[in-house]
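chain below, 451 aa
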Amino acid sequence: MSDFDLVLSGTVVLPGLIIEDGYVAVRGGKVIHVGEGKAPSAHERHELGNALILPGAIDAQVHSLSQKNQEDFIWSTRSAAAGGVTTIVDMPYDEGNLVCSAEAVRIKVAHASPQARVDFALYGTINPEEGATRIAEQAEAGVAAFKFSTFGTDPIRFPRIPPALLEECFAAVAKTGLTAGVHNEDDEMVRAAMAKVEAAGITDYRAHALSRPPLTELLASLQIYETGAATGCPAHVVHCSLGRGYEIARTYRDQGYAATIECCIHYLTLDEENDVARLGGKAKINPPIRPRAEVEKLWEHVRAGNVTLVSTDHVSWSENRKKSASMLANASGVPGLEVMVPLFVKGALQRDIPLTWAARLMAENPAKHFRLAQKGALTAGKDADITVLFPRPTRYDAAASGHNVVGWSPYNGIELPWTVGLTYLRGQQVFDGTTVAEPGTGRFVRPEVRA
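prediction:
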């Protein structure tokens, strides 16, 4: 009789080591052993040749409910499973239900649980009119982090949190032991730059980056990290498009502060002069996509260890919200859950960056960041969340895949040398290369409680 429920053999990619003739052994939904050489027997055993076996990815930034009656968890977690993402961390800015109280957290968990095909954690936030009064109750309800913004897209759903209130919020979050993540664009500077663009009559693809020049992002990042330093709260910049931003974050860490920083896959893949010029509104994202030279700087920060997390900032706007000829009139954000992992693998291999960074930045570090103790590693005792990529070159087509609520993607047409072919959640197969798990397979996951 076999000791294991599942054994996968192939090239095992760990945060600090690649085992070319390796295997992962699973029992009871947990990783039991990772080894090298001849694999043990199991009830289910797959010899995968030179396939890459990675810990299931944790996408630190997903917007499943930004557009009412559009994507929802039924589709976001389908894209996730097909992309090797076994846990998503969903943002609190839901259309019709700002997640800013314990009750709002409970409503969202009850809504998402019967839909989710992979596991999910949640961000919480505040209603500016209430201040920081409900931060503690949201932590007790199980949110994994808090999200704020220095720029206001909408006064209710996505509000700007002014400096004094941000300090109050950070002080309250510090008491929970969780992290304060912040959208990093200086509101006053963005609005001044937007006015200049509009006065100049620029409406094409150039308008977006001109309306958000680098200084708008860097000043906000400095405010975030200084607020964290002043309050003792772990401070996190949730997306940075500029090499200078990673230098700033590294400086604060070198000074002993908890200062983390996230790079979205679009900043490592797309550039302004080619992709935004070609795609227009379908490549409008806040902060903006930057020139190719900046993209390459970000990869060097990956290589140097200055990036904490890689995520998608996934949102599947209906196509009509991304097709305006006036660039600034389009909704901001793009879908990416299905391709984050293969895009990162492709980019790293092209630049001779070790694939160990894939395991670290998309699994191990997010698990630690959100205190999801059972996630993020192919280590004995952890959940057997596993992603397998095969060397099967494909040209990505979001509509053809069938795993996305929308058929458009800024990544359509990109050649992917490695393709996600198998995804396991707690040892259960949730993607076999074609089909995904049924809704309700995923669970709400909470951060560990620390004394």
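Residues 132 and 169 are 5 Å apart (CA to CA). The chain has a mean pLDDT of 97.
thats it, cya
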